[in-house]
Amino acid sequence: MPTTNLAESNFLVPNATFFAELFAFALVLLVLARYVIPPINKALTERQEGIRRQFDELETAKANAEAAENQYRSQLVEARHEAARIREEAREQGAQIVVEMREQAQAEASRITAAASAQMDAERQQVLAQLKSEVGTLATDLAGRIVGESLEDEARKRRTVDRFIAELDGHSIEVEQSGTSMRQR
Fold first, then answer.
1. How many CB atoms lie within 10 A of CB 161?
2. For 153-183, how does the pLDDT look when each residue is reduced to its tens digit (9 = 90+)?
3. Residue 14 covered by a domain
4. How many domains does the chain have?
5. Domain annotation covers residue 129
6. pLDDT in tens, 23-34
7. Looking at the domain assignment, is residue 136 inside a domain?
8. Do 144 and 150 contact (CB within 8 A), yes or no?
């Protein structure tokens, strides 16, 4: 039977391979701790700082955006007030223009009415004068026929016409007064 060494087969007793593996593991840990982990830590730290700066910039941008929005809202409110003020001024100016135009229209209507009234008075006077001359001529002719003598004498003719017209004027004044009193009723 072969003799086996109990020390070789016992896994709890360390052997030379174990120490070699332990030394290699420690060497790998030392290389990792000295050359690999510090650059990784540095890169992670820089990345965290970059992220922190981005968050700070984001907060600043957010504050600026809120300030710009508040300014926009205040300008919008101010613009609305200005528009309302301008509309009110336009309404007032429009009302003033309407009043002025009405006054001008009334003045123009009064002027036209006065001109028409003056023209009608002038035409009435002209018609009355024309009627008086025609009535006078007709009256003298009629009177000459009734009396049977000619009223060729100019002075006599004029006196007769004037007397007839005076009688007609008196009669026409009475007619106008009675017509006015009838209209007033």
1. 20
2. 677 777 777 777 777 777 666 656 665 565 5
3. no
4. 1
5. yes
6. 999 999 999 999
7. yes
8. yes
